[in-house]
Amino acid sequence: MEFDWKIDKFDSIFVHILFYLYKSPLGFDFDIRNEGRDGSINRNNLKRRAEELVDYFRNVSLHYQGS
After folding, report:
1. Where would you tag: which of 40, 41, 44, 52 has the fewest CB atoms within 10 A of its CB?
2. What is the pLDDT of residues 8-21, one digit of tens each?
3. What is the rounded radius of gyration, in angstroms, for the C-alpha atoms of the chain?
């Protein structure tokens, strides 16, 4: 997910590719246009959904050197 983009034989730029580009993690899209879809968060599932989000970011962090 991270690499040195060689500009020429002397210069490079350290870059990385984002998961889902600029989208929310799958299942965590809170756009009002998607209201009513599965994945809503409420008092009954708050703990589980929070754990899912933390697990998602833990997994993503494994693909970056800074983790």
Report:
1. 44
2. 888 988 877 766 66
3. 17
Each residue of 41-66: pLDDT tens digit?
888 889 999 999 999 888 888 877 65
Residue labelled with tokens 């034989």: 9
Task: Please give the single-letter amino acid code of residue 65.
Answer: Q
Measuring CA to CA, which residue among 11, 8, 48, 7 is closest to residue 27?
48
Domain boundaries, the chain: 2-61
Helices (H), the chain: 46-61
Supply 52's token pair. Answer: 């899912």
